[in-house]
Every structure is written in structure tokens, then in C-alpha cells.
């Protein structure tokens, strides 16, 4: 059984009495960003982790977490200085996004993250990659991909809510790199990771960035993340 991650008091600084909750395991990779462990995020994660949560609430709550991930992910894209004039005729020295983007979802669970990306980036192009376990070799196998023709010129937001061993994510990045996408232009957005997956993935691709909501304690003997939330795709789509 994996070591239990520490519990920490969670809450705003102005409150003296704060509840304790298990927060994300700390990971020592410069290219991994874990969302701030706010009371809101922990409460949302507590809903989707709960086995008694019904599909409607699971979908609604996952979508809220995905929205937080997308908003944080966009902070890692390049911006340039951009001054605008306000309705009262004054200049405001701001920023604008630079560069074209596209989403790529790792089917099927990653497709659940597409709408969150569309909600923030209107008419964003979205590619798909299907990777499944080969029953004979137990290794991940590429079954299908459909990617924008000009993907090599874009920043890619790679979408998969669960990072377990990292096998599928690694294969997906290999596909993107084979289509000419430089590693430093890939951003992996993820709801729940574990130390094994983070280590395998982030150390293999030190130039890409990972944005995750939480790094859990580990994997069980069936490679489910623990304590985890079960099978994300089943809970989002079918259960
Ligand atoms: N995929 C899931 O849906 N859940 C896990 O725990 C691991 C991989």
C-alpha cells in the first residue's frame, strides 16, 4: 500500500479554524504545475472521487475542474504586449495571446475535456488520438489518429483526465512529435495524476508542460490511481 499523503489545513488565511484535507503530493519536476489546492478545488475533487456521486453531478463537477485546468493552461501560452483604448479614451497596457493552438484529446476520456477548451477558445480545432492496451502484449497501441494538417505550426493542448502509468500519454506525445510538433509546444492538461505517471512522463519529455489538478498517492495492482476516482470514462459517459 502506498504511503498516505500528508493532510494540510485548507482555507483562506483570515480564518483561524480551517478544516484539514488531503492535498496533492508534491512533485519535483520543473515542467509540472499542480493547481493551487484551494478549498474550492478540494471540495470539487471530493465530489468526483465519491463513489456515490451520480453521473449528472460527476459530469457537472468534472467540467468545473476541467475549466480551471484550461484557464491555468492558457497561462502557459505566449503573450505579447497589447495596448487598447478604453471607452473613456485612456490607454490600457495589456497583453494578447500569440500563436495558434489546437486541442488533441486522447480518446475516450480525453474527449470529456474538449468542451472546457471550446468554452475558453472559440472554434478551436480539435484532433483525436485513440490508444488502447494491446491484449497480447499489455502495451499501449495506437489505433487511430486524426490531427489538423497544420498541427506542426500550433501549440497543442493534449487532453487526458487520468495519468496512471503514463503509457498512453507518452505514445500520444510521440505521435505529435512525429507530426512535427516540438515538445516545447505541447501542454498536457490532466485532472488526476500519480507519482509514477508523472515521473515516467515528465522526465521523458522535460520540455513539455504538465498542468494537473492533483497528484494522488499511487497505483493499485490493476494500475488504477489510488485513492483515485475509478474509471473516469465510465463515470463521465456510461455509468
Ligand atoms: N484511467 C482511469 O479512468 N482511472 C484510473 O484510475 C486510471 C486510468
What does the secondary structure layout of this molecule look like, with pairings?
Blueprint: E1 7-9, E2 20-22, E3 32-34, H1 39-49, H2 55-74, E4 79-85, E5 91-97, E6 101-107, H3 114-120, E7 125-133, E8 140-146, E9 155-159, E10 162-163, H4 167-178, E11 186-193, H5 195-204, E12 209-215, E13 218-219, E14 225-226, H6 232-238
Parallel strand pairs: 3-12, 6-7, 6-9, 9-11, 10-11, 11-12
Antiparallel strand pairs: 1-2, 4-5, 7-8, 13-14
Helix pairs in contact: 1-2, 2-3, 2-6
Bound molecules: uracil.
Uracil binds at residues 109, 162, 164, 224-225, 228, 231-233.
List cofactors, ions and other ligands.
Answer: uracil
How do the helices and strands follow one another from N- to C-terminus? EEEHHEEEHEEEEHEHEEEH
- Strand residue content: 25-35%
* Class inferred from helices and paired strands: alpha/beta
Distance between the termini: 28 Å
Oligomeric composition of the shown chains: single chain
The helix fraction, in percent, is 25-40%
Note the overall shape: globular
Count of DSSP strands: 14
Question: What CATH architecture label applies?
Answer: 3-Layer(aba) Sandwich
Helical region count?
6
Could you report the average pLDDT, rounded to the nearest whole number?
A: 95
For the biggest sheet, the summary is:
8 strands, mixed
Count of folded domains: 1
Low-confidence stretches: none
Question: How large, in whole angstroms, is the Cα Rg?
Answer: 19 Å
Task: Briefly note the CATH topology name.
Answer: Rossmann fold
CATH class: Alpha Beta
